[in-house]
Amino acid sequence: MPTLTYAARRGELLQYFDRTAVEAWKRLTSDAPVNSIRATVRAGRDDMRRTLLGWLPDDLHGVRLLDAGCGTGALAVEAARRGAKVVAIDLSPSLIELGRERLPGDLDIDFRVGDMLDPELGRFDYVVAMDSLIHYRPRDTVRVLEGLCQRSDRGVLFTFAPRTAALSVMHAVGRLFPRSDRAPAIEPVRPRIIERLIGEAVPGWGARGMHRVARGFYISQAMELVRR
Q1: pTM as predicted
Q2: What is the tens place of the pLDDT at every residue in 181-199?
């Protein structure tokens, strides 16, 4: 069940990705030149996307997949190329519109503006949430995962921000930027803590795979949840 902290952070994310940072994300998710810091973020996101896609079957024909927090839809496009029927949802109308504009003409993806927990989205074989839960407190993240697992038949793949010394330094540096330029804070958590919380809140599900990507200013950890 969503909490007040989830709702409040959701509003911050909408403000940031739909207004403050839309141009920056437009460049980051394209081939446009970016500075050295954002280049590491782009490379890290590319690595993470490959990791998550690598955990999915090569042939996705007949599979219904939810790209939860899809951004501009890069992962959704790759899944659709493998044959998946993809619903790609994001809070930001601006990012969804950009995803629709970039969609190759030979693919069909159901882009939607809204909340990944919307029950009207229906059931899926797989849910993928790449870097869309990293801004929520751990218990809020697990509540979201509980809801996603209830609607997934085969697996939920997601990422979280692992608590590391390097990530702590990046947080400290980030606080030096003007408030208007800051992204919403991420919420680092130790892998064993997130696993324990999932075990308590989502019975019958457990981690089958885990992989960390660290490329400069990008640090994120993927986890694959499956039915036990």
Answers
A1: 0.92
A2: 556 788 999 999 999 999 9
How many Å apart are CA 212 and CA 73, to the nearest integer?
Answer: 22
Nearby residues of 53 by Cβ (< 8 Å), 6 or more positions away? 75, 78, 79
Angle made by CA atoms 4, 182, 101, in degrees to the nearest 5: 85
Token digits for 211? 């992989």
Which CATH number is 110's domain given? 3.40.50.150
Host domain of residue 133: 4-227
Distance CA 161, CA 67 (A): 19
Where are any strands of DSSP class E within 78-216?
85-90, 110-113, 124-129, 152-160, 205-215
Question: What is the tally of structural domains in the chain?
Answer: 1
Q: What is the pLDDT of residues 74-87, one digit of tens each?
A: 999 999 999 999 99
